[in-house]
Amino acid sequence: MKFQAEDADLFLQSKDYIDTAIIPLVGINASHIKQTVSLGEFTMLVAEDLERQLKGRVFLFPPYTYLEVNNRKQEDILALKQSLQEHFQHVVFITSDNKWKEQLEVSESAFILQSVPLEHLKVNLKQKVIQDSVEQILNFLLQKWNPS
Predict the structure, then answer these.
(1) CA neighbours closer than 13 Å in the CB half-sphere of residue 139
(2) Helix locations, the chain, DSSP H
(3) Which of 22, 34, 42, 138 has a CA positioned 20 to 30 A from the CA of residue 52?
């Protein structure tokens, strides 16, 4: 389910089944616009494909955008996570920005994608790269959904 009115209505009717919030983390840096856009595009494509495959189990929120990864942003992310945990059992962040690994409190809830520049890839290869990333996130989610 996506962050749109129609899906919000479905969410309210099916709350018991939709237990996972997905929030893409997308950095913005005008000094490195090409790289920033590439990382953000990859993150969004993976998040949208994940939502498509898990529709009815996950709710995809709009991306949280930021200028830099720092302690203040970590606090914002943790506050966002806490507010969503009132409605979702699992809150997962998806990003291509490796700097989030250094934010230990966020890293336990974050899946850091190994970004691949997609612009020069053929369509079928793009889809394969995105699908491989989705499968990795699915394994991450399965561990969260079925803790041992």
Answers:
(1) 6
(2) 5-13, 33-53, 71-84, 104-107, 123-145
(3) 34
Instruction: Report the DSSP beta bridge partners of residue 24.
Output: 94
Domains of the chain listed by start with CATH number: 5-145 (3.40.50)
CA distance 131 to 108: 23
pLDDT tens string 2-38: 888 888 888 888 888 899 999 999 999 888 888 888 8
Structure tokens at 71: 């302690």
CA dihedral 11, 113, 139, 19 (to 10 degrees): -20
Confidence (pTM): 0.89
